[in-house]
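hey so i finally got around to running the thing on that chain from the lab meeting. sorry it took forever, my laptop kept dying and i had to restart like 3 times. anyway pasting the input first so we r on the same page abt which one it is
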Amino acid sequence: MRQIDQAWSMVQRCLFETPDAPDVQLNLASILALHAKYDVAVAELLSLLLPLPGHPVILMRLVAVCEQLQDIGKAVAFLRACRKLSSEDAWGAAKMEQFEALGLA
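ok and heres what got predicted. didnt touch it at all, straight out
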């Protein structure tokens, strides 16, 4: 069994036991994105932002998933929100430079 399939099974078990655990939901969104189920991953991540507004990890994952969906406008918006919270973040700075170099931000 592939590791991603094992992770999926584990997340499903954890969701059954603790359906409202944000860390489990975050892992679920990551696995959905790895399976190229980007729309579902975005929905899951957005549902996490309601109880955890401005959570940098959620915002970073939204940037990555929106980028995969080629929704660069949303990716840039989530990146800007993330950068406001953590302007020292090297990943965010590099990603913003990348978007700016492409004329997307």
